[in-house]
Specification:
There is one protein chain. With 325 residues, this protein is α/β, with parallel strands linked by helices. The chain has 2 domains: 2-250, TIM Barrel (Alpha-Beta Barrel), CATH 3.20.20; 256-324. It has helices at residues 2-6, 24-32, 45-50, 53-58, 77-87, 104-107, 119-130, 150-163, 185-194, 208-218, 234-243, 256-274, 276-291, 297-304, 310-324; strands spanning 12-15, 37-44, 68-73, 94-99, 136-143, 167-174, 199-202, 222-225. An 8-stranded parallel beta barrel has the order 1-2-3-4-5-6-7-8, surrounded by 7 helices. The radius of gyration is 20 Å and the shape is globular. It binds flavin mononucleotide. The site of flavin mononucleotide (FMN) has 21 residues, from strand 2.
Length: 325
């Protein structure tokens, strides 16, 4: 499955792991709009091994989200091995290891970005995952506190390639940067030149122009859409067209009305699965980027937090919005 994905000769577009966003319905929409590969959000290996309900919920997916990668975090190689072994019986196409999350509750257990400070343990974790005999990948940042660590990160990735990982995703910001500053795409180009396995580019891809620029600069095997795809599933279809050889000038511009209409469909599906009250609360965060840049955004944003019913959302927010654009 994974091999055919990368051997198609075309670059691929990937739907990012995003905690609190990339649920089953998000992935289905991403796929419908053109994603070649989707990701679950990060999952605790320990939580999974304990059979924690919420964790098990994160593992649920349907056929219209595939091929799908599952992402785990842990600082303990035994936990990673046991999680990967259990996962290998499910239909995920790759077991991805998170080496970038800088949230305290993840790092305090030596997982996520904490592995960037302990690359020997990161290597043990990769070896442990590989023992489970399923494809393994790594998603990583460019360093923990400074780009001075980059050389060590690159050496680690070379070792991970030798151990046998299938691909790597690089978000070239340090963990200390979180989401500030700009992603240093030049580092992606460096990994592409240094490794033989496919490299997926992540970081600051918000438009089709960004996609064109990042692939030109890095020649990565694919791009991962994250914040740029929140409330803009059409970025998947634009990217797919570009990778299928359509000239960028011929790729249709996406109106806010189109995006809004798709988000409304998305909310409707969330309502079916989560129930109205929970779904509307869950989806509120998707409306903010949709409203960004719109002159009345502040007032509209204020409205969002009071909306509780789907009909109200449609009539008070989306219908006026779609008329404007
Ligand atoms: C809300 C949010 C949640 C995220 N959750 C995860 C996650 O669970 N695992 C992970 O590896 N990266 C996670 N990321 C990082 C993204 O996958 C991506 O690498 C990063 O946002 C850079 O891409 P962007 O600048 O295009 O957003 C998350 C990012 C955001 C904004």
């Amino acid at each position: 499955m994974l091999n055919s994905l990368f051997s198609s000769g075309s670059k691929i577009v990937v739907s990012a792991p995003m905690a609190g966003y990339s649920d089953s319905i998000f992935r289905r929409f991403a796929k419908k709009f053109g994603a070649d590969l989707t990701f679950t959000e990060m999952i605790s290996a320990e939580g999974f091994l304990r059979g924690n309900d919420k964790t098990m919920e994160l593992l649920r997916f349907s056929g219209d989200e595939t091929p799908i990668a599952v992402q785990f975090f842990s600082g303990v190689s035994d936990a990673i091995f046991m999680a990967a072994e259990r996962i290998s019986g499910m239909s995920f196409c790759v077991f991805d290891i998170n080496m970038g999350c800088s949230v305290r509750k993840v790092m305090k257990h030596g997982a996520g970005a904490a592995l960037l400070k302990n690359l020997d343990n990161a290597e043990k974790i990769v070896i442990a995952a590989m023992r489970a005999k399923m494809p393994v990948s790594v998603k990583i940042r460019s360093g923990f506190s400074s780009e001075d660590e980059w050389e060590q990160i690159l050496n680690f990735l070379k070792r991970a390639e030798e151990i046998g990982i299938s691909f790597v995703t690089l978000h070239p910001r340090t963990a200390a940067q979180k989401f500030t500053g700009k992603a240093n795409w030049h580092l992606i180009a460096e990994v592409v030149h240094s490794l033989k396995i496919p490299v997926i580019a992540s970081g600051d891809i918000f438009s089709i122009d960004d996609v064109a620029k990042i692939v030109e600069l890095t020649d990565a095997a694919g791009v991962m859409l994250a914040r740029g795809a929140i409330s803009n599933f059409q970025l998947f279809s634009q990217t797919k067209q570009l990778f299928d050889g359509v000239n960028i000038d011929e790729i249709g511009k996406i109106s806010l009305a189109e995006r809004a209409e798709t988000i409304l469909d998305f909310v409707a599906e969330e309502v079916e699965v989560r129930g109205e009250a929970r779904a509307i609360r869950w989806c509120r965060k998707f409306f903010i980027p949709l409203l960004a840049g719109f002159p009345g955004a502040r007032q509209m944003r204020g409205k969002v937090s009071h909306i509780e019913k789907f009909a109200q959302l449609k009539n008070e927010l989306f219908v006026p919005l779609m008329k404007i654009f």
